[in-house]
Amino acid sequence: MIKIVAYKAEHFDGVKALWETVFPHDPPWNRAENAIPPKLKVQPDLFLVAINQSVVIGTAMAGYDGHRGWLYSIAVDPNHHRRGVGSRLLAFAEAKLTEMGCAKVNLQIRAGNEAVAAFYGHHGYSVEERVSMGKRLGG
């Protein structure tokens, strides 16, 4: 039976292994050891973990700034794809954001990632014409 819970320190190794599998080309700042500590300082209840018999099989990380919600990532172990794990994580994150008063959720995906775009499209997300810009701070 799959449970969705808020991240705890005991999940670190499982999350790290999952992210290395699902996001093998992510930059260093997205690696577990760099991304998790700051997330735990801000809305740690929006960092969700899907557990199957004590094994981490999925994660969702979201945030809310009082104006917009953001879904930063959903990761599901490839051995558990197409079993509803990602959909459950998404629904759980959306419910948590709604409880906080969030009325709109934004997300970004990498261009060309059609499978992920289809997943979100299936759940009611649509492409909004925007230009995404970013800047790394502090180095």
UniProtKB/TrEMBL annotation:
**Pfam families, alphabetically?**
Acetyltransf_1
Keywords, in A-Z order: Acyltransferase, Transferase
Q: State the superkingdom.
A: Bacteria
Question: Is Acyltransferase tagged as a keyword?
Answer: yes
Q: Could you tell me which Gene3D superfamilies the record lists for this protein?
A: 3.40.630.30
Q: Which SUPFAM superfamilies match?
A: Acyl-CoA N-acyltransferases (Nat)
InterPro entries per UniProt: Acyl_CoA_acyltransferase (IPR016181), Bact_Acetyltransf (IPR050832), GNAT_dom (IPR000182)
Q: What molecular function terms (GO) are annotated for this protein?
A: acyltransferase activity, transferring groups other than amino-acyl groups
Residues of the N-acetyltransferase domain: 2-139
CDD domains attached here?
NAT_SF
Give its E.C. classification number: 2.3.1.-
| Protein name, per record | GNAT family acetyltransferase
Annotated source species? Parerythrobacter jejuensis
